[in-house]
Design a protein that fits this description.
Number of helices of chain B: 15
Distance between the termini of chain A: 51 Å
Number of strands of chain B: 14
Shape of chain A: elongated
Keywords (chain A): Membrane, Transmembrane, Transmembrane helix
Number of strands of chain A: 12
GO cellular component, one term (chain A): membrane
Protein name (chain A): Spore germination protein KA
Strand order of the largest sheet of chain A: 1-2-4-5-3
Number of domains of chain A: 3
Largest interface: A-B, 30 and 30 residues
Strand content of chain A: 5-15%
Distance between the termini of chain B: 110 Å
Helix content of chain A: 40-55%
Shape of chain B: globular
Largest sheet of chain B: 10 strands, mixed
Strand content of chain B: 25-35%
Radius of gyration of chain A: 31 Å
Number of helices of chain A: 19
Structural class of chain A: alpha+beta
Helix content of chain B: 25-40%
Number of domains of chain B: 2
Order of helices and strands of chain B: HEEHEHEEHHEHHEHEHEEHEEEHHHHEH
Family (chain A): Belongs to the GerABKA family.
Oligomer: heterodimer
Chain lengths: 549, 409
């Protein structure tokens, strides 16, 4: 539905970006020319090695091994790699050893030996020729091994990537009871492979690129050709190409650079550390962005309701999944408005509280010296402090903090009459509810907005809450993620996709991919997939005597 | 330019939203005195005496947990006088430290004396007009007592006296049928209607009202003073004129179709009160007809119930006996209803809403009857009471053990 894409706005942005692009290009070329290392390699090995030494500042982890090759007049070659980025064993076994064992090769010049080494000697899968400095450094610093030959202006780069990396562990943020136990690691190659293992299809396409002018971070865009909407891939490419940052240290750098709308607390790009979640989203027509150095993979476009869904929703029965999704919607409202409703009801609308309940609250509030709003604010801020401290502090101190937190906030403050027990209950329920939201960025954004709701409730009561809620709805409906309305398929309402929002229709009934996100191939499965019990043989054979039921 | 204009407009709109809205007012809970019941009397000088029953939340059981709890009474009562109802309300603020809050007032007590002499019509406007008071507030008449005596009495079990009275009416209406829980809006509606008049339940203090104010009253197992629902006050032209009691009161509740459950005692073979027939369900339909240019009312009662007590050996296993008992029950219910109708006719006040029924069915004819319905037409009206009573069960057994006892002796 192209009408949902705001083309006119995008053009404007493009113009700005293009101008910037040109500017930065100019700057880049200036920088390079001053350093004397751009352009093609030299024919002389010694000169080449000198440039490497100079460019890397003679860093000790850049290893250069010089060898003599050939039976005739021996030709000097050099093998260069970065220690720790390569798998030392394959460098030793498949490069150095094989070259040394082939002493008897007859060679006339560097070009020939290059051919020989490339074709006959190296026992590694992925090799390529390099003939300019930029590419040489890029491959060497990403863990490849470089073979330079005296008398040749070309070098061989062999893939020996390896070194120490974290093994694949269970996900630590998006846990499920049922489903895959794998989670991404910091190595991009491993991460891509994890998804490849799930989707065994040649249409799973990957577009690599390097981002970050200094860090030269590997970033890959992954999508399923034939399901993804071309416009979205094009948009992702364009936004990624526009990034001119010196460094990409985490997926968050990219997320913040490519999101549609910056004036919002809501996440408009999803991130996950679960390969199965990436696979599921690719199959819905989304684009995944892998970034080297982080276990979090970005998924775009993201819609609001997606942040309340878990991969497990698709693994368990649909009725149970629907029930849990309803629960999450309830917790969303509790964590958004819990304290606000309490403040509004106890300071503006006492008539709405049942008498007995009002008396209980009134008795507790009698000793509290602060207005309900201040009381709520104290408790909420205290809780946020506790939560924040809990994340950062060393694990060993954990129990101490929880004891202090529970005793000081839960008991002492109530006994001292600073806050009322009812308020402690409200804040606790709200806190727990906010953690029931599966997505952390969504939960924290709700928590932030909660303070706004409390303020509105304290000044205008329910009226203020309603005003704040209308504003929030308007804001959410105005958000877009890569052109897709954030609240879709709820608003705009797309009946075909409404089966996978708050509800989750059973798999045999879930026919369509999200309309606004994937387009080419909207149908997920064949017709009439509803499982039926087998026709009982007894029943059909007995038809003669017991029919006309 | 356009953006800036839009932003200013948005800002102005937001300002408007916050200022043009209706009444809103911040009131902290610990700045409120929550009124549970209001009593209205008239003193010798002709001024209204308003009695406020204010809840002391700390002393209400259940709220005791946190704050160490007070030992004092659940409610504190203040009185204030004034020339009007509102006057007396604001005079109350000279005695009470907190803002008077009436949204949780669920009982309004009017003294019998006031209701008889001045009537209730002029009083109720101040309550109906007030945005805080609920239209569903229950109204009772202090029977042979001052309203303040009712409001001041402390009660056990339900700590808040207003709660006790309201719950008593609710329960009694449900299981006995001799009382009615009427609300402020219900009374006003019936008062302004020419074809019907309100019935309001009376509440009286049994015992010494002075002792009822003391906390010692609720520390004994038998209270020195208790509040008891007693009778239905009948009104004419907004003034209390008489009381319905016992079977007459229940008859009125039958006709009004407010009765849910009740017990009817039946005579068997000349002995009174032998069989207890418990009505489980009933449905009453009142219909009007005009015959010979005179309105006639038919009251059709359909009751279903169980036999729950037999004091003499009655052969309940015999269907003919059950049919006979059904006839007896019909007769007894009919007697109660007719007694009530006769009483109303004598007092010339249509508490049943027969006039309304005629008005609804014959709007044209009502033009003739309507003017002097209460005075001349209603007292002469022919009321035909039809009762169908059914016995559905006889409890856990049919023939009583009394039959075996009789046989063995």
């Amino acid at each position: 539905m192209p009408s949902f894409f705001k083309r006119h706005k995008r053009k404007k942005i493009d113009k700005v970006h293009n101008n910037k692009k040109e500017q930065t290009k100019k700057e880049d070329s200036k920088e390079n020319s001053s350093q004397n290392a751009a352009g093609p390699l030299n024919r002389s090995l010694a000169a080449n090695l000198e440039v490497i030494k100079q460019k890397t500042g003679s860093s000790p982890d850049v290893i250069i091994r010089r060898l003599m090759v050939g039976g005739g007049p021996p030709v000097e070659i050099a093998i260069g790699y970065v220690e720790g980025l390569v798998e030392e064993q394959s460098v030793n076994d498949f490069l150095i050893k094989s070259i040394l064992n082939n002493d008897d090769i007859e060679v006339k010049n560097g070009e020939e030996i290059l051919n020989k080494i490339e074709k006959d000697i190296i026992a590694l899968g992925s090799i390529e020729r390099v003939n300019d400095w930029e590419k040489l450094f890029q491959s060497m610093l990403s863990g490849k091994t470089i073979i330079l030959i005296d008398g040749s202006s070309e070098a061989i780069s062999a893939n020996t990537r390896g070194g120490e990396k974290r093994s694949i562990l269970e996900p630590s943020t998006q846990n499920t009871i049922r489903g895959s136990r794998e989670s991404f690691t910091e190595a991009i190659g491993t991460n891509i492979a994890l998804v490849r293992r799930i989707i065994n299809n040649p249409n799973l396409w990957i577009e690599p690129r390097k981002l970050g002018t200094i860090t030269q971070t590997d970033v890959s865009v992954m999508y399923i050709n034939g399901i993804v909407k071309d416009e979205i891939v094009e948009e992702v490419r364009k936004r990624l190409d526009n990034i001119k940052l010196d460094s990409i240290l985490e997926s968050g750098y990219i997320e913040q650079m490519i999101q549609d709308q910056t004036m919002t607390t809501f996440p408009t790009i999803f991130h996950t550390e679960r390969p199965d979640m990436v696979a599921g989203n690719l199959l819905e027509g989304r684009v995944a962005i892998f970034i080297n150095g982080t276990p979090f993979v970005l998924l775009a476009p993201a819609v609001f309701i997606q942040f309340f869904q878990t991969p497990e929703d698709y693994y368990i029965r649909s009725d149970i999944a629907t029930a849990t999704r309803f629960l999450r919607v309830i917790t969303f409202f509790i964590s958004l408005m819990g304290p606000a409703i309490y403040v509004a009801a106890t300071t503006f609308h006492q008539e709405m509280i049942p008498t007995q309940f009002l008396l209980i609250i009134a008795a507790q509030r009698d000793v509290v010296p602060f207005p309900a709003f201040v009381e709520a604010l104290i408790m909420e801020v205290t809780f946020e402090i506790l939560r924040e401290a809990g994340i950062r502090m060393p694990k060993i101190i954990g129990p101490t903090i929880s004891i202090v937190g529970a005793l000081v906030i839960g008991q002492a403050s109530v006994q001292a009459g600073i806050v009322s027990p009812a308020m402690v209950i409200v804040v606790s329920i709200t806190a727990i509810a906010s953690f029931a939201t599966p997505s952390f960025p969504m939960a924290i954004s709700i928590r932030l907005i909660r303070f706004l709701f409390m303020l509105c409730a304290a000044t205008f009561g329910f009226y203020g809450i309603v005003l704040a809620f209308i504003t929030l709805l308007a804001h959410l409906c105005g958000l877009r993620s890569f052109g897709v309305p954030y609240m879709s398929p709820l608003t705009p309402f797309i009946p075909e996709n409404a089966g996978d929002t708050i509800f989750r229709r059973p798999w045999w009934d879930l026919r369509e991919r999200p309309r606004l996100i994937g387009s080419k191939n909207t149908v997920r499965k064949g017709n009439n997939q509803k499982p039926e019990p087998p026709a009982a043989r007894e029943m059909s054979s007995r038809k003669g005597d017991g029919d006309e039921i | 330019m356009g953006m800036r204009y839009k932003k200013i407009l948005l800002f102005l709109l937001i300002i408007c939203i916050t200022t043009i809205s209706g009444c809103w007012n911040k009131k902290e809970l610990n700045e409120l005195s929550i009124i549970s019941a209001l009593g209205i009397d008239k003193n010798e000088e002709g001024e209204y005496v308003k009695t406020f029953q204010i809840i002391n939340p700390k002393n209400v059981a259940g709220a005791l947990q946190g704050g160490g709890g007070g030992q004092g009474p659940a409610v504190t009562v203040y009185s204030a006088t004034g020339k009007t109802i509102l006057d007396s309300h604001y005079m109350g603020s000279t005695k009470i430290s907190r803002r008077l809050y009436m949204a949780h007032t669920n009982l309004l007590v009017i003294s019998e004396e006031l209701a008889r002499e001045e009537g209730i019509i002029k009083i109720l406007d101040a309550f109906e007009r007030d945005p805080e008071i609920r239209p569903t507030t229950t109204i009772v008449i202090a029977h042979e007592a001052k309203a303040e005596d009712i409001v001041k009495s402390l009660t056990a079990i339900d700590n808040i006296p207003a709660d006790k009275v309201v719950k008593t009416l609710e329960t009694s209406e449900r299981v006995w049928g001799g009382e009615l829980k009427v609300t402020l809006q219900g009374v006003i509606k019936k008062l302004t209607d020419s074809g019907t008049d309100p019935l309001i339940t009376g509440v009286r203090v049994i015992g010494d009202p002075e002792k009822g104010k003391k906390i010692e009253n609720i520390q004994a197992s038998e209270l020195d003073a208790t509040l008891e629902a007693d009778g239905l006050a009948i009104f004419k032209n907004g003034k209390l004129i008489n009381w319905l009691h016992g079977d007459n009161a229940r008859g009125a509740v039958w006709v009004l179709d407010k009765l849910k459950k009740t017990i009817v005692n039946l005579e068997w073979e000349g002995v009174k009160d032998v069989i207890g027939y418990q009505v489980m369900r009933q449905n009453t339909e009142v219909s009007a007809a005009i015959k010979n240019e005179q309105p006639e009312i038919t009251v059709h009662v359909r009751a279903e119930g169980d036999i729950r007590e037999v004091r003499n050996p009655v052969k309940l296993s015999d269907p003919d006996v059950l049919r006979k008992i059904e006839k007896l029950a019909e007769k007894e219910i009919k007697r109660q209803i007719e007694g009530s109708v006769e009483f109303a006719k004598e007092n010339k006040t249509d508490i049943f809403g027969f006039g309304d029924e005629v008005h609804r069915s014959y709007p044209d004819a009502w033009k003739d009857f309507g003017k002097d319905w209460q005075e001349t037409v209603f007292p002469e009206i022919k009321v035909d009471v039809k009762v169908d009573a059914f016995i559905r069960r006889t409890g856990l057994r049919n023939n009583s053990y009394l039959s075996d006892y009789e046989n063995s002796h």
